[in-house]
TrEMBL record:
Belongs to the aldehyde dehydrogenase family. SUPFAM superfamilies: ALDH-like. Pfam families: Aldedh. Keywords: NAD, Oxidoreductase. This is 2-hydroxymuconic semialdehyde dehydrogenase. PANTHER family: 2-AMINOMUCONIC SEMIALDEHYDE DEHYDROGENASE. It comes from the Bacteria. Residues 25-490 form the Aldehyde dehydrogenase domain. The keyword Oxidoreductase applies. InterPro entries: Ald_DH/histidinol_DH, Ald_DH_C, Ald_DH_CS_CYS, Ald_DH_N, Aldehyde_DH_dom, OHmuconic_semiald_DH.
Length: 495
């Protein structure tokens, strides 16, 4: 595959409703741009109330009929077949994901697509082995009672997705939703409609009943996103995206008192103590700052280095950043792709300018990246490292979501914990140290949902995932996903 061939055909992304592909009744479409080249490579249909109504109604019918009637064994077998079918069409998903996001092929082939399949397998396995609770209760007449719990599907789930890991983050929600017996209506990001659309073909091939998985394309406000989250036929909303959007969705969910699961923004820290293995800390911090061009919610934007190793750490981080190869997804050995859109590039560049205004020393980067050939029109920026920013600067407080970080020294454990926690966000942190006692002590005092020690983005899908503070509501992963995707009923039987 090469990018020239990818660009030669204009694709069309239709909605996937009740098992078949449909255009918008309004005829409205919007362009889809390949970030690696800046060219329009497809059009997507924009869903309105008609499409959202049709999708919610198809999801409800499947819930009450075909899907709802399946045993757990049959349901989970079908879900496992979806994973097998994604793997069978691995190259199609890979091609779709890299043209939509521009991310390096090496990244998408190791993370996005395999995780897309694993999300179905893992939750099918979890549901097969889940058990409930039971209590024997004493009663005054001596006969007693038995209490036991059953978990039931919540109903029709709206799944609203971002663009940074389109297949991975969408299936992270669709996998457990279906495994728990719900049906879904997915609204993919307007930037990345490809893999959610392709998944419709996989659902049909795997034999999934019509209406279990539906996709409506469009934007947020006054478009498919808002119509879906405010639809009274939706029983729960799971969302990944910006904190500001999460607030709007929480308000929409308030009508009808519908539950939400929110995975939101972050301003994550890495804390490197002087006793850390420096090679590993540099390698891990490089990944946590620059992977996916810094467009990872778990990524590091604040790096705190214990003063004795500050100069050496900064020198080596700068050298490593300058060695990153920038380019399109299919270029050899590329480690830094483009940002998702021209608009997002403007946002990141505005923070590059703000950092200078706020007194930063720019160690490396700070501008647009020069690219050539097919990549000339893509949305590339330079990997950027700053020192000299105060903790109160906007660059140290606001989520940028680009390939950049601010590095700053610290002198004591107490000081660094307070500074790391000095943010409205609370998604993740990484602590680098060879002192095991300190690792445990610091990790539990950080106000985050996930803390890695001597690693970053090491995920076991059975573990709880989510954010503290403004980084989210609820936890997903393993059995924790059951809290949102099922309704727990207690049955009390008087003997
Ligand atoms: P975004 O909030 O702009 O958009 C996410 C989705 O919400 C899109 O599909 C969009 O169309 C939709 N949307 C927007 N407004 C809406 C509204 N009013 N009603 C309903 N839907 C609406 O986020 P993004 O730019 O796509 O993604 C980047 C953000 O996602 C970053 O803040 C990042 O930190 C966050 N993120 C968080 C996690 C996590 O697990 N915590 C994971 C990935 C990304």
């Amino acid at each position: 595959m090469n990018e020239a061939r990818l660009m030669s055909e204009l694709q069309e992304f239709l909605h996937f409703i009740d098992g078949s592909y449909r255009p918008s009744v309004s005829g409205k479409t919007f362009p889809v741009v390949a970030p690696a080249t800046g060219e329009i490579y497809a059009v997507a249909h924009e869903g309105g109330e008609v499409e959202v109504n049709a999708a919610v109604s198809a999801a409800r019918s499947a819930l009450n009929d075909t899907w709802g009637a399946l045993s757990i064994a049959d349901r989970t077998e079908l879900i496992s077949s979806v994973a097998d079918e994604i793997n069978a069409r691995f190259d199609d998903f890979l091609e779709a994901e890299i043209i939509d996001t521009g991310k390096p092929k090496s990244l998408a082939s190791h993370i996005d697509i395999p995780r897309g399949a694993a999300n179905f397998k893992m939750f099918a396995d979890t549901i097969r082995t889940i058990s409930g609770e039971a209590f024997e209760t004493s009663t005054p007449d001596g006969a007693g009672a038995i209490n036991y719990s059953v978990r039931k599907p919540r109903g029709v789930i709206a799944v609203i997705c971002p663009w940074n890991f389109p297949l991975l983050l969408m299936t992270w929600k669709v996998g457990p939703a279906l495994a728990c017996g719900n049906t879904v209506v997915v609204k993919p990001s307007e930037e990345t409609p490809a893999t959610a659309t392709l998944l419709g073909e996989v659902m049909n091939k795997a034999g999934m009943p019509k209406g279990v998985y539906n996709v409506v394309h469009g934007f947020g406000p006054d478009s498919a996103g808002e119509f879906l989250t405010s639809h009274p036929g939706v029983d729960g909303i799971t969302f990944t995206g910006e904190t500001r959007t999460g607030e709007a969705i929480m308000k929409a969910a308030g009508t009808g008192v519908r539950p939400v699961s929110l995975e939101l923004g972050g301003k994550n820290s890495a804390i490197v103590f002087a006793d850390a293995n420096l090679d590993k800390a540099i390698e891990g911090t490089m990944r946590s700052v620059f992977a996916n061009c810094g467009q990872v919610c778990l990524g590091t934007e604040r790096v705190y280095i214990e003063r004795p190793i500050f100069d050496e750490f900064v020198k080596r981080l700068k050298e490593s950043a300058e060695a990153l190869k920038i380019g399109g997804p299919c270029e050899e050995e590329v480690s830094l792709g483009p940002l998702i859109s021209a608009e997002h590039r403007e946002k990141v560049l505005s923070y590059y300018a703000l950092a200078r205004e706020e007194g930063a020393t720019v160690l490396t980067g700070g501008g647009k990246a020069a690219t050539s050939g097919l990549s000339r029109g893509g949305f590339y920026v330079e990997p950027t490292i700053w020192t000299g920013l105060s903790d109160e600067s906007r660059v140290m407080r606001e989520e940028i979501f680009g390939p950049c970080c601010a590095v700053t020294p610290f002198d004591s454990e107490e000081e660094v914990i307070a500074r790391a926690n000095n943010t409205k966000y609370g998604l993740t942190a990484s602590v680098w140290t060879d002192n095991v006692t300190r690792a445990h002590r610091v990790a539990r005092r950080l106000e985050v949902g996930v803390c890695w020690v001597n690693s970053w983005f090491l995920r076991d899908l059975r573990t709880a995932f989510g954010g503290a503070k403004a980084s989210g509501v609820g936890r997903e992963g393993g059995v924790h996903s059951l809290e949102f995707y099922t309704e727990l009923e207690n049955i009390c039987v008087k003997l």
